[in-house]
Amino acid sequence: EVQLVESGGTLVQPGxxxxxxxxxxxxxxxxxWMSWVRQAPGKGLEWVANIxxxxxxxxxxxxxxxxxxxxxxxxxxSLFLQMNSxxxxxxxxxxxxxxNIFGWFDPWGHGTLVTVSS
Amino acid sequence: xxxxxxxPATLSVSPGERAxxxxxxxxxxxxxxxxxxxxxxxxxxxxxxxxxxxxxxIPARFSGSGSGTEFTLTINSLxxxxxxxxxxxQYNNWPPWTFGQGTKVEIK
Lengths: 118, 108
Prior knowledge:
The structure holds 2 protein chains of 2 kinds. Chain A is built from no helices and 11 strands. Chain A is mainly β. In chain A, the strands form 2 sheets. In chain A, strands 2, 4, 5, 6, 9, 10 and 11 form a 7-stranded mixed sheet that branches. Chain A has a 4-stranded antiparallel sheet with strand order 1-3-8-7, with no helix packed on it.
């Protein structure tokens, strides 16, 4: 069974940093693009970042460029999101998702909540 | 950036009836469109990709249609488990990969 399990979400102060993790199992992790998608409380879905199989290509939504870094460890079947200079508007549930080669997200993890507040 | 606009924001439907959800793209996305279902407290689930192909395990009462800029998700004979929020997403022009704001299907 394909599984994605996120962790690392917590309460952090504005300007702080946080590292999210996503543990993948049940599929050949190293052969897929991977993504982070977030959802602010009561709001819709917003794509955040993608990373290619070998980490050689990365894409970010404009609002996080220069602050967030997506990375992966194929040996450990893990995806990461390093979040720096956090702002209140970064408060959201962050989902890890597998990106199909054509561009849809499937499956998704259960999400981890990041709250940025003083 | 391609902007995806869904309508209506909320759709009230009785169990057993049909629900018709719309998604419009600000420019053509060909057939590169997906639909997702999200229930409260859960992760989104892929329903449709390629505008009209059901994902694995998705019941036949879900169908997608459209191409270019206008798309429709139809849910026939709504079941209790179908009341949820539905999102469309384009993957024709990226980055960014963009979602609509969602349509909530609620019990009438």
